[in-house]
User: Which sequence fits this backbone?
């Protein structure tokens, strides 16, 4: 559900989003295989485990710089390395987080994000009681100073964890401060100018789907 | 991305998942309008704000028990109430969380979930150092006792925040203990028997899409 505006620069090899969304599943599976010291895996074996057609998997992996061997399959360690690298999980991406409330604080304390290449380097908030404090060594600044903070920490990504009614206003402020990508945790559909990447992750919206299906399956 | 197996009981009015996923956007927007004391809103006005076609919005809202007035639109307060109720956000859904590590702890401390109808009533883990402790009044039990804990707390939902290589094993344990819905935060594609609802929310997978688009837009 990334909103992306078409770019008018020469066309490059843009990976379709469904493929991009499946790659982390493959990575998860091959990481597990590696932890079990499995050396090779075929797309058929992956398919069986994660419910994606083998032909689809082979097609998805053809975007990467790796080839399976006939009748043996892919080398697990190499496939894991290539996937992790392609997905950007082994690089450091700096992010500021706007809104250091309950969810913002939770994301700062989640060390899992670091393992997937995301470094939350600073928090920004309007609340004078937390401005000047730090959470797990992440300093919290006044939202007024966002432009300077973002620049000093070389953060291209702004994570938006403000109350839903502040989502658009916060997005505008982040973009004005030079953010190139917004990771929006509110269910609000923010509007952005061309060239800004928006990733929506509304975990609360996912709850609605689950409740609904739960009632249907177990009336 | 909820995996749902077709049910063979008489067909009921099942809302398409895309519609279900848009409803929280409408709710977010009308909640904001209500906080600004706006009384009526048309589907055209909503469309303008959140980038969904007005006809689509009208169609989505037709699933709900509410009608807009010609030339005036929907009553904001009523629409908010109907949406919140339809989405199940005003009911209490009990959940146990399996894996009280960094992400699990973060979800327990996120009071936002409660506002969307989810009560995390207990944690389960294998780590003897945290078994017996509590986090924000949520007690942590031994995973061995999951069946009893789940039953005592009337929790139909199990949240899975274990390391990726334990995802399938944990799902199997949760289902054996009587869980009817799994909220899977790992990127692993777990397999489940018929009748079990699975909601996948891999926030780390979303990062991959964002990194990729960020590199394309800002080479």
Assistant:
């Amino acid at each position: 559900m990334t909103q992306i505006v078409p770019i008018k620069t020469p066309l490059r090899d843009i990976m379709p989003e469904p493929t991009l969304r499946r790659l982390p599943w493959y990575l998860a599976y091959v990481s597990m295989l590696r932890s079990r010291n499995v050396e090779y895996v075929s797309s058929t074996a992956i398919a069986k485990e994660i419910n994606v057609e083998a032909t689809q998997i082979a097609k998805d992996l053809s975007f990467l710089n790796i080839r399976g061997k006939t009748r043996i399959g892919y080398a697990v360690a190499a496939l894991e390395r290539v996937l992790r690298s392609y997905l950007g999980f082994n690089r450091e991406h700096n992010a500021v987080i706007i809104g250091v409330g309950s969810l913002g604080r939770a994301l700062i304390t989640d060390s899992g994000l670091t393992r997937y290449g995301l470094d939350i380097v600073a928090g920004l908030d309007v609340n004078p009681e937390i401005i000047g404090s730090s959470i797990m060594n992440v300093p919290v600044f006044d939202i007024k100073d966002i432009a300077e903070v973002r620049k000093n920490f070389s953060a291209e990504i702004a994570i938006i964890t403000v109350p839903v009614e502040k989502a658009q206003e916060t997005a505008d402020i982040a973009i004005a401060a030079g953010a190139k990508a917004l990771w929006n945790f509110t269910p609000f559909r923010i509007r952005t100018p061309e060239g800004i990447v928006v990733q929506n992750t509304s975990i609360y919206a996912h709850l609605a789907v689950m409740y609904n299906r739960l009632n249907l399956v177990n009336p």
In short: The longest helix of chain A spans residues 17-35. The first strand of chain A starts at residue 40 and ends at 41. Chain A is about 40% helix and 15% strand. Strands of chain A lie at 40-41, 74-75, 93-98, 118-125, 134-135, 138-142, 157-160, 181-184, 197-200.
